[in-house]
Amino acid sequence: MKYIVMECHLSYAVVLNEEGCFLKVANRHYEVGQTVTDIIEMQVPPSVSQKKKTNKWVYSLVAMVACLILMVTSMFQMGQMTYASVYMTINPEVRIDVNRNDVVVKLDGINSDGDDLIAGYEYKKKDLDLVMDELVARAIDMGYLYEGGQISLVLDADSDEWVNIHSDTLATQLNEHLNEKLSVTIEVTDMKEQGNKVVLPVTPKEGDYGESDYEDTNKATAPPASPQPAESDYGDSSYDDGQTDYDESDDMDDSQSDYKTEDSQSDYEDFVTGQSDYGSDYIDNDDSQSDYGEDEKSDYDDYSDYDDD
Amino acid sequence: MKSEHQIIKAVYAAKENIHKADELIRDYIPFIRSEASKCIQKLCTEQDDEFSIAMIAFHEAVMGYERTRGTFLSYAAMLIRSRIIDFQRKENRHQGNISLYTETGEDDHTLMDELADDRDQFDESANLEAVKQEIEELSSVMADFGVSFSDVADNSPKQERTMEACASTIRYAAENKYLLDELLRTKKLPMAQLVLGSGAERKTLERHRKYILAMLLIQTNGYEIIRGHLRHVLKRKGGSLR
């Protein structure tokens, strides 16, 4: 290819090729009119054009929108997500799953009576309190709950705060609801700290006494709570980790056995009565420790039962 | 910091104005030379090809610089280095060949002198003079239209299809001389007629307005040599079309 040099500048020359193209090339000491064959064309680096910039904007915008959608949907999901569960055992045992706002998202029967209890019950978008009230009412209607009966609530949540708040309010609320109808025992238990059991004996007929009892129970909630960590500490220091795990499983069994046996209840009543002098709490604790031993024994029995199976 | 700001300002001014670009480059010739010398690892004189390449690389840097690309001088240095490396690679391909200017050992004679010269030196230089005159004349006519060769070079079509469209327009104008006369008389491109006659898209032609103007001016009387340089291409393409 031949090129005619058309114009010379300090840094470049303009040449005309045979196809009629004007090119800017390196000026290798050319002069105007000269015919050259070997050129070094100028290549201006393509600018980071406006178009590309807007593209970048678009990308970030799209990413932002995607993030937003993700957030919104996840928030929506969170509304449907189980935040905490309440296991309500009368005899029918049901699990009530609630979301962060205490709206029931799922209702499950754990035993067959529980299935019966919730059969045909519409729980959607109802508050936990309402659902519990209505379920208890249903239980009364269906004859599961009777005068002097017992309701045990097991609270299961990741946040201790939720458990702390609801262990009080749920019982209070349920009591108020049942005030006129029946006298039942309500037992509130935290899933994690099975040791932290509170049994609320309700005597609705003597309202004043009941209320004072309430306060007592609230107090009663506190003292076992304070020795409880001490106990767990004790467990940590004295027992191996594996053993503490074992302890927990013990506790599970413990609680279950407690639900069924009347003895534990009477124990707790003892506890409440002996609560006036706090000093005896520690003695009680000692008692409970000795109880542990018994529990373990019974557990071993359980295990042996399993082995038999 | 302040001087940096100044040079960036100067670069941005040079992008717009070709004279300012020339000025900027003239100011930075020592820088360009030093960068080129660093790259070829010997002193770079203004006669070296590398120097020319460094110059055009610097020009590219001026045209292509953007604030997002960092410091101007380091950007320019990078561009100069890469262009020179490109050039050296290209040259290395010819390494096996000997230059026409290598001396044959007899006196000051070079290989070039030994080869049979079928061209007439005197004719050549007379020819060069004629070409020069033509170009100067064309340049002055184009100046009347406010267009320089640099503008045309920036405005040249690059894509084959666009080039074909422009070529067909130019051919059409060359066949209809009255269009060229009209161009000279009115100092305006008869765009409507060109579009109508050539069948090219108006948008394409508008985009390469300066280029088409230059090519049409070349088709007017008096630029025989340049036309000769272009002619066979235009004709061949015309032939292929028909």
Description:
- The complex is a heterodimer of chains A (309) and B (242).
- Helices cover 53% and strands 18% of the residues of chain A.
- Chain A is α+β, with helices and mostly antiparallel strands.
- In chain A, the strands form 2 sheets. A 6-stranded mixed beta sheet of chain A has the order 7-6-5-8-9-10.
- The model of chain A is unreliable at 204-309 (pLDDT under 50).
- Chain B is mainly alpha-helical.
- In chain B, helix 9 (160-175) crosses helix 11 and helix 9 runs parallel beside helix 13 (209-219).
- Chain A binds chain B through residues 2, 4, 6-7, 9-12, 14, 16, 18-29, 31-35, 40, 42-48, and chain B through 18, 21-22, 25-26, 47, 49, 52-53, 55-56, 58-60, 63-64, 66, 68-69, 79, 87, 128-132, 134-136, 139, 148-150, 152-157, 163, 166-167, 170, 211, 214-215, 226, 229-230, 232-234.
Count of DSSP helices of chain A?
9
Largest sheet of chain B: none
Parts with pLDDT < 50 across at least 5 consecutive residues of chain A = 204-309
In whole angstroms, the N-to-C terminal distance of chain A is 97 Å
Question: How many domains, in number, for the residues of chain B?
Answer: 2
Overall mean pLDDT of chain B stands at 81
Helix vs. strand class of chain B: mainly alpha
- Widest beta sheet: strand line-up of chain A: 7-6-5-8-9-10
Largest sheet of chain A: 6 strands, mixed
Helix and strand sequence of chain A: EEEEHEEEHHEHEEHHHHH
Q: What would the principal axes of the Cα set say about the shape of chain A?
A: rod-shaped
Number of alpha- plus pi-helical segments of chain B: 14
Q: How big is the Rg of chain B?
A: 23 Å
Provide mean pLDDT of chain A, rounded. Answer: 68
Q: How far is it from the N-terminal to the C-terminal residue of chain B, by CA? A: 63 Å
CA gyration radius of chain A, whole angstroms? 38 Å
The secondary-structure class of chain A comes to alpha+beta
Quaternary structure type:
heterodimer
Task: Give the % helix of chain B.
Answer: over 70%
Percent range of helical residues of chain A: 40-55%
